[in-house]
Amino acid sequence: MIATIWYAAKLSKKKQPESFELGFNKIQLWLIPVLIISTIALTVGLERVSSLVPMPDSVAKFFDDLFKNDIFSIIMISVAAPILEETLCRGIVLKGLLQNYPPRKAIVYSALFFALIHLNPWQSLPAFFAGLFLGWMYYKTRSVIPGIIIHAVSNTTFVLFLFLPKAQQDYLGLLGLPLYLVVCVLATIVFVAGCMLIQKRAKVV
User: Fold this and answer.
1) Each residue of 138-192: pLDDT tens digit?
2) What is the number of structural domains in the chain?
3) Helix (H, G, I), strand (E, B) or coil at 162
4) Does residue 120 belong to any structural domain of this protein?
C-alpha cells in the first residue's frame, strides 16, 4: 500500500506540481463527534449488507487465523489501514477523479475502486457503500481526515466484536432480535440526521 501511494503520488505531483497535496487539510472540530456517532450507526447497516454474501467457513477461518488479539493487529486494522487506504483512495484517486468527472460519478467510481482493492466479495460489498459515504465526506471537506476517522471507527468496531464469543460477533447475535430491530431503526435515524447536519454545515476549511 505504501509503495502504491508513493508511485501514485509521484505521478500526481509530476502532473500538477503546483497544487499537489495528499489532502490532510484541517476540518471543522464539530465534525469529529458527528462522524464518530454517524459511523457507529452506519456499521449496523454495513453488517447487514455484508451478510448478503455469506462468507464460506474456510474463508472465515482464514480471517480468524489472520487476526491475532495483540497490539500489532489492532494498530494495523484501526490505525494504519485507515490512514493508508484513505490517503490512496480519497487523497489521490478521488481527488483525481473529481478533476475529470462530475462529483457523483467520481464518488461512485472511487467507491468501486475502494471495494475492488479489498479483493473479496465478503468485504467488497460493504466497502462499496462505505466508500460512497467516505467519498462524499472528502467532496464536502476536501480532506482525508474525516475519512480516516470514519474508517478507524468502523474498523475498531469490527475489532471489538472479534473479542466476543463467536455467537456474539455481530449486532444480531449480541443484542437478540427484538433489541436488534430497535437498534436498526435508531441507527437509521441517527445516520440520516448526521448526514443532514453534515450536508448543511460542513465546508472546506
Assistant:
1) 999 999 999 999 999 999 998 898 888 888 889 999 999 999 999 999 999 999 9
2) 1
3) helix
4) yes
